Hints:
By secondary structure, the protein is an all-beta fold. It contains no helices and eight strands.
Amino acid sequence: MTQASLLDWTEGAEGIVWQQCSACGHGWYFRRTFCPKCGAGSPEARQASGAGTVHAITRVMRAPSEALRPYAPYNIVLVDLGEGLRVMAHADDGVAIGDRVTAAFVTFGDRIVPRFSKG
């Protein structure tokens, strides 16, 4: 995939982009211009599969703003993606620690966000 064809939810598209250092191999989530482990520049952007395993979960009972109040309560999870990195995102009710999950993308407030479901 070319850089231009990578889909990322932070830009309003349905996908998760991660980066990997070509010098040390370290991978991370949320774009940077350098490797946070070794400092090398020009990391490679990659498309994540969206599949992973739930590492932790919390239930948000009180929304952080008036605009998000209609969505509460909702789940926030840490998911270990198959690519070897951990992401934080929303999750369906009934998702538990250890579950295999897959990302879909939903509207939350005024933006699109990843939401993980069993399967």
